[in-house]
Each structure stands twice: as structure tokens, then as C-alpha cells.
Amino acid sequence: MKAHLITRQGWQALDKELKYLWKEYRPQITLKVQEAAAQGDRSENADYTYNKRLLRQIDGRVRYLVKRLEELKIVDYSPQQEGKIYFGAWFELENEAGERVRYRIVGKDELDTKLGYITIDSPMARALIGKQVDDEVVVQTPSGPKEWYINQIRYSPFEDNLTGVPE
């Protein structure tokens, strides 16, 4: 069973996208469709065809966001989480070779590997939940088990950019 969790920041980003699509972008594209339709023959009107397709994509995304925002549960930071890895935590891991990585556990709607965000449903996140600094964690990966040591846990972003898998 997949978790329907999201950080407040992630929920606000989806809500902002929904409002933009519905209140700004969709009306712009609707106007373009109307203008293109007014030019006559729609069957050979590339502008009409393109914008009509774009309008369908926008409507699909709007439907998805409305439904998704209703089913998501916002998880806010709680002081009881301090010192352990839970949903929303940023953390630094180190392997035996001394390679360090930083990640944050988020919901699937927030996944962004460039930012070092991993989903709560990932094997790494599942292995780390409830762990604390200096704990050793074995994560099952497709290439076999990987061992990591927890160096830091925070509930605010790291200042530098060390994220993701070591090079």
C-alpha cells in the first residue's frame, strides 16, 4: 500500500499549480482556441488543433490535481521527531568508502532526485524510518544490500548542495 503523504510545502506547490492552470493558463489557451476557431476551417488549422490538444492536457492535469489534493495527508514537523528520521527529514548518510549523500523523505508527488528528495515508499526511506544518528542501516537495492551510516538528521534544509548518489 502506497502512502498518500505530502509535506506542507509540497501540498502548497500542487495547490499553486492547480490555481495557475485553472485561473491563468486554461483561460489563455481557451482564448487561443476561440480565436483559431473563428478563422474558419478547423480541420486544417494547426493552431486550433494544437491548442485544443493542449486544453485537453490541462483539463486532465486539473482533474488529477483536484482528486490528488483531496486524498493527500499533510504531515507537518513535530518536535517529537527530533533526532530520528521520519517523513520530511533531511539526512546525511555515509558508506564505508567515505562517500556522503544527503536526502529528504517526501511523498511521491514531491519526488525530485536533483534536490535529493526520495519517496517514503522507497526501500531506503523504509529502512531509515525511526533511525537516529550513528545507526547503521542496510538498504536492499537491485544490485544487492548497501550499508550506510547516519551522520546527520535535520528538519530544515542543508545549506550546501551535497545531494543524491555519490559520483
Automatic annotation (TrEMBL):
It comes from the Bacteria. It holds the Pfam family GreA_GreB. The keyword Glycosyltransferase does not apply. GO terms for molecular function: translation elongation factor activity. Residues 5-74 form the Transcription elongation factor GreA/GreB N-terminal domain. Residues 81-155 form the Transcription elongation factor GreA/GreB C-terminal domain. Keywords: DNA-binding, Elongation factor, Protein biosynthesis, Transcription, Transcription regulation. The keyword DNA-binding applies. Belongs to the GreA/GreB family. GreB subfamily. PANTHER family: TRANSCRIPTION ELONGATION FACTOR GREA, TRANSCRIPTION ELONGATION FACTOR GREB. This is Transcription elongation factor GreB. It comes from Shewanella glacialipiscicola.
